[in-house]
Amino acid sequence: MGPPWEDVPAGPEAIVIDPGRAFGTGAHPTTRLSLELLQELDPGSLLDVGCGSGILAIAAAKLGFAPVVAMDVDEIAVAVALENARANGVEITAHTANALEDELPPADVVVANVALDVVELLLPRLDAAWAVTSGYLDSEQPAVDRWWPRDRREVDGWAADLLERA
User: Fold this and answer.
1) Is 127 exposed, middle or buried, given 0-12, 13-18 or 19+ CB atoms closer than 10 A?
2) 135 lies in some domain
3) Which pLDDT tens digit goes with each residue over 52-95?
4) Which CATH number is 113's domain given?
5) Which secondary structure element, helix H or strand E, spans residue 82, and what is its range?
6) Cβ(134)–Cβ(34) under 8 Å?
7) Would 10 be classed as within a structural domain?
8) Running DSSP on this structure, what letter comes out for residue 2?
9) Using one digit for the tens of pLDDT, what is the confidence trace for 106-138?
10) Number of folded domains that form the chain
11) Does 131 reside within a domain?
12) Residue 3 domain flag
């Protein structure tokens, strides 16, 4: 994973992300940790909340997740995510929405690489069996009723969690 101005190894798992004016090239530890946890799950439908440049939605599509829906409050991020999906040869649906206010589609898996306070407000709204959450420090952990921690990854002071709906 990486931006187009860096050398990315060739192969089916290679993802090139041009962040444009959106957030994320895939280099941040929370993105990498989220991707590790996604690889533990059987592919199914996926919702990427706060998709930024689309890196996790694109990676999920390459892992066989389908359909993949990405959403962000920033319309520029949504446009960048769709362009990056086309550039990487995968199909995702993306739209502008506020995940804390707007209706959320059901999905087998939700990935949310956002701040902890957003994760904790988001989890009760989800219609999903699994959630991969990140975007917070390793000293923090989501605490929400009806979601059980199943795995946790930490690196460089950051964390990601795999949660299962109780």
Assistant:
1) exposed
2) yes
3) 999 999 999 999 999 999 999 999 999 999 999 999 999 999 99
4) 3.40.50.150
5) helix 75-87
6) yes
7) no
8) B
9) 999 999 999 999 999 999 999 999 999 999 999
10) 1
11) yes
12) no
